[in-house]
Amino acid sequence: MNTFHPHSLARRARQSAFLVYAVFGVLLTAFFNVQILGSSRYRLRSDNNRLRTVYLPAPRGLIVDVNGIVLAENVPSYTVSLIASSEEGLRELLDQVSMITAIDSATVADATARWLRSSTDPVVVFRDAPIEVVARLEERRVVLPGLVVQTEPKRSYPFGELAAHVIGYVGEISEQELRGRTFPGARLGTLVGRVGVEQQYDERLRGSDGARFVEVDALGRTVRTDGMGGRIEPVQGDTIRTTLDIRLQAYIAEIFPSGSRGAVIVMDPRDGAVLAMYSAPSYDPNIFVGREAADERARLLIDEEQPLFNRAIQGRYPPASPWKLAVAVMALRRGLISLDTKMPTPCTGGFQYGNRFFRCWKRNGHGDLTLAEAIERSCDVYFYQLGLRVTLPALLEDGTEMGFGELAGIDIPGETRSIFPRSPGYYDERYGPSGWTNAVTLNLAIGQGENDQTLINMMRFYSMLANPEGSADAPYLVERTQDDGRSIKLPGEASDGLREALIEVVQSGTAAGARIANLRIAGKTGTAQNAQGEDHGWFIAFAPADNPVVVAGIIVEFAEHGSRVAPLVNNVIARHLLGDDYQEGAYQVELPADSAPASVPIIPIPRERPN
């Protein structure tokens, strides 16, 4: 017969009581951690489940010209977004939206992709929604529980295509850019700069986004939109002041040859400030903003005229006769010639080298010329011989030193590096050691051959010619960049002599038809050979010639001769120096008989504007 000892029962009772107290202690500790110590964490988790963050995009900073005229601003617009707890719920909401307003399959696919990337954020369906669409959606909010409509700043470019290549436009950041941290601080849906000043100074222009909160239920339906949590106000981006003079830019666009392709740049040679930069054809950056004009955007991308291509900093062309000044500089600073030096063979219309005859543009020749006269009349035969005297290695060495194979360094993205060989080894690699002859020297000497320059890079070189000290800083639109400052390292008397020769180009040489009364302009025309059609026309000039404060250049594709486009440049210079009261027509159109090819007469610039 089993009996329980009283001491055994008491011990078991004590053990049971201890176990109960221990369990109670554990539960009490857990309760304390959850209710007291962890309350903030669980409250945040709860808030995250019932609150959705709606970001308030910051207005981008303004972009203004040198006089404070607004080039890029913000106008109010409506953005329509949807909040959904599941992909199926989002599709149901999109179906409801499609019954109220037109919505295409691409928009549906884009909205779905956005939700999959970030299911807790409102999904943008329409940017820049018309007020009529917003009104219809608001009227049916009862069937659209996840609808979020808010006013957002929309980028606007009041001058349209006038300065599109310089100012640029904005577009939504891509996933690849987010992963690569191309735009620090940006998030999904952020609008960022795409080209021009908008892209270069995006971080300063973007500002800081704000935020508000929307309460949703367990199914993701909006319950309340006001008074939920705090509100963070957006902070507008910085205003960016450029060196651009939009009135001068407008004048250039007005007189640029109708239907032509090319570019014009106007700069201050003293510090590199870009006063105007025009590329034709252009485009309206406003079509990249908002939901409309998708067809127009697509057409721009396939347009054979390439309106998105900035010919001022991206187009590369043989520099032709404007580059002859570089050869002259090389020969002068090496002490090989002076401004009065004549070549052994006078110009009779061409130059025999080996078994090839290299023609001059003037078929009956220029005769026996000095360097100054050869510059004035742009004699090819003189520079063929000068190139041989300098030699190919020296041409390439000095040209590289002067920056002809480099970027000009302007402070907007997209500039194309000019093409220029660094040494004769370039030809060995390209053609083989026996695949080329010294005839390449003759081509280089007149700005042809393996030498393609951008207009902006040639402008920097002519700024060196214009400045008494022979140096020039990098061109800039907003901020001057710190670089080594290129220099032609030419003695003062030689620099003055070259300037006088360039003055004679305009007074009585190949640009005489562009002469401006009472204004001394120094410049050089050029005709660049083009295998795809008519030759391209160059003209680069600076003024006042005795104390230059402006340098202007133009490249026009298929213009046949630089003398055709010289009047435009000189009129732009006169407009800048003499003000808005300057009237065209002051230049002469009659040329000396030996100043330009008889087959290429000087003609006025057409005044018609493109349709």
Keywords:
elongated; 21 strands; 611 residues; alpha+beta; five-stranded mixed beta sheet
Provide an overview of this structure:
With 611 residues, the protein is an alpha+beta fold. The chain contains 20 helices and 21 strands. Mean pLDDT is 86; it is low at 41-48 and 586-611.
Task: Please describe the topology of this protein.
Blueprint: H1 6-37, H2 39-50, E1 51-56, E2 63-64, E3 70-82, H3 87-100, H4 105-117, E4 123-129, H5 131-139, E5 147-156, H6 164-167, E6 170-172, H7 175-179, E7 191-193, H8 196-200, H9 202-206, E8 210-216, E9 222-224, E10 240-241, H10 246-255, E11 262-267, E12 274-280, H11 294-302, E13 316-317, H12 324-333, E14 350-353, E15 356-359, H13 371-377, H14 380-390, H15 392-401, H16 425-431, H17 439-445, E16 453-454, H18 455-466, E17 471-472, E18 486-487, H19 492-507, E19 522-528, E20 536-543, E21 550-556, H20 562-578
Parallel strand pairs: 2-10
Antiparallel strand pairs: 1-8, 2-3, 3-4, 3-5, 6-7, 8-9, 11-12, 11-21, 13-16, 14-15, 17-18, 19-20, 20-21
Q: Number of DSSP strands? A: 21
User: Which radius of gyration do the C-alpha atoms yield?
Assistant: 35 Å
- How can the largest sheet be summarized? 5 strands, mixed
Shape: elongated
Give me the secondary-structure category: alpha+beta
In percent, how much strand structure appears in the residues?
15-25%
Low confidence ranges: 41-48, 586-611
Mean pLDDT across residues: 86
| Overall helicity | 25-40%
Alpha-carbon distance between the two ends: 119 Å
Helix tally?
A: 20
